[in-house]
Design a protein that fits this description.
Length: about 350
């Protein structure tokens, strides 16, 4: 109805559109911004990212490094290679020498060329960027995964990269392309992996978006996405499909220690929360509540912060969620060293499982 399908053609503005709007420069820019805003920074040891300058010698490894069709999610538009930039193509714009090897035949990774991977990593001495994941070939409607592991021999490929990287002291950046969670518990605390970025399916703007974020070309190119689901530590935390209760399902009822929790995500900068007020202090069901907080950027870079508001039911006569997201806001806060810069944000919440109003002050 919102698209005007039931309106007379002369009243529907969308009937006036023609093919000139397809892949317009404006739409291409939106595709890049959508990718940038969806990236979730899972790890960034000692502020390894962003890269500060053009790198001299970099290797890029993995079945998702230059596999454009697998960068698009299920139900995506028809893939157009002319407007699509892969991770390899994007990163190539910011390095002097880029050495690429897929390593696997496909994302299923039934076979990987260990010698080729070892050689390629050994000549990319500044950093090795590893691109792993699922792609729609393994993760789409009618193609359900039976576990959370990296597909096929992708784990062996990453282990091979790490062996060479440790021997030559080459830092590793892991880029993940997937829809659902992946079990990377073996690698999360690996010191040679300096950063992990969950990219999901960034589609046609992938390469440009990655280059902008990894090198932070503009002040807004700072990852601030948050995980839209819980990442379990292992399959032992995933309830059986035949269990139709809500026990340990979704972040609201999950009681274990996840690999990464719902709503998790890092930034290149740091934020401080202060002066939290809740009005009114005592709440009855169906009442409006305003949460006011001052959020300060106390880090080095400008960036977005995603302010999240959760509620709990300490005393409930019926089974209730452990906690529930009831409001959020994404705000851009500039860095203002040495004392930081701050914004006052008000999140209005209507305590009937939805928010009533929502604004930044």
């Amino acid at each position: 109805m919102r698209l005007g399908e039931f309106d007379p053609p002369e009243m529907n503005p969308y009937t006036k559109l023609n093919l000139d709007v397809v892949q317009s420069s404006e739409h291409q820019a939106i595709a890049i911004q959508a990718a940038i805003k969806s990236f979730v920074l899972l790890k960034n040891n000692n502020n390894f990212l962003p890269f500060k300058e053009m790198l001299n010698s970099v290797s890029i490894i993995g079945p998702m490094a230059h596999n454009p069709l697998q960068l698009f999610g299920d139900y995506s538009p028809v893939f157009n290679p002319h407007f699509t930039m892969t991770p390899k193509e994007g990163i190539n714009t910011s390095v002097k020498h880029l050495y690429y090897k897929a390593g696997c035949n496909e994302t299923s990774c039934d076979f990987f060329d260990q010698m080729d991977v070892e050689l390629t990593v050994s000549i990319g001495l500044d950093v090795s960027i590893v691109c792993l994941g699922t792609g729609v070939a393994l993760e789409s409607e009618g193609r359900d995964r039976t576990d959370l592991s990296l597909p096929g021999q992708q784990q062996d490929l990453l282990r091979t990269v790490l062996v060479v990287a440790k021997a030559l002291n080459i830092p590793v950046v892991l880029l993940l392309f997937n829809a659902g969670p992946l079990d990377i518990s073996e690698f999360v605390n690996e010191p040679q992996i300096k950063a992990i970025l969950a990219c999901f399916y960034p589609a046609q703007g992938t390469g440009e978006a990655l280059a902008r974020v990894l090198w932070r070309r503009e002040s807004s190119d700072n990852p601030a996405g948050r995980l839209p689901m819980t990442w379990p530590n292992s399959m032992s935390q995933v309830p059986p499909m035949t269990d139709y209760t809500m026990v340990d399902r979704t972040y609201r009822y999950f009681h274990g220690e996840p690999l990464y929790p719902f709503g998790y995500g890092l930034s290149y900068t740091y934020f401080n929360y202060d002066k939290l007020t809740i009005t009114p202090e005592k709440v009855v069901a169906g009442q409006n509540v305003t949460i006011q907080v001052t959020v300060s950027n106390v880090g080095q870079y400008d960036g977005d912060e995603v302010i999240q508001v959760y509620i709990q039911w300490p005393v409930s006569g019926v089974p209730s969620p452990k906690w529930q997201l009831v409001g959020f806001n994404r705000v851009f806060i500039t860095a203002n060293l040495p004392h930081g810069n701050s914004v006052d944000d008000a999140v209005g919440v209507f305590l009937a499982f939805c928010y009533n109003h929502f604004h930044t002050m």
